[in-house]
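Justification of computing resources. Each target in the renewal requires a structure prediction run like the one illustrated here; the chain below, 252 residues long, is used simply to show the kind of job we budget for.
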Amino acid sequence: MPMNTPAASGNDSRLYVYALAGIGTAPGFMQEFHGELSRRLAASTGFTAAGGLLYPYGEWSRSVRRQIWEVWRDIRLPAGAWARSYGVAAVRRELEPAARGSGPVVLVGHSGGGTAAVHAADMLLAADPERPVAVVQIGSPRSPVPPVLQEATVYCYACGPDGRGRDPVCRLGSWRAAGEPRGRLPVGRAVWRKPGQLVPLPIAGRHPDYFRGHLRAAGGASNLELALETVEKHIQGLWPQLFGEEERAPFS
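Resulting structure tokens:
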């Protein structure tokens, strides 16, 4: 049963769903995840799913050392300079349908792809500040989130049964934007550019395993199913604020 969504501005009935892979990944990585997430969101919202699978830093055929350098450089871009992101430059052409459209956009990035997802969302909002855009980062390094995106960004990280994080990539980087004054403020007054929600994922395995359909988490669900359910749930939670409405019929 489609969700009671408003008509998209400009008569655009498409929901743009993109999955952005991290560095050194195999061709087709995240393909199953992207296809199933697109299907679920389209069925729940009544929109037509568009978008695709993106490799902002390249597949495993490209120099991994170069990819690491590009991600690290993108993480450390000064505040307001995210338009210079290597990750965005690499996928700008693939994002053109979303840039030309007006329907909602969902960007899900794994590892370094999560940094590129934030930068791509910032690019889309710079062109249209009223655009409904949501970002989900999964197993990503810490990189600053622009203020306009903070409430619409969800950060997921692998954890053990005790809830403690166990993905080393999630310890890299910082949520403080380079170029912002540090001063001598007390710690409690420091300005951080964190995602709006931090969500633990009790998957089996570690960083490369978030989307494994053959690995079973403690509750019996596969890692893939757990990732899908978590992302869908949080996109559902973000939907009312993306459209600026207080009440919305739930997904079904």
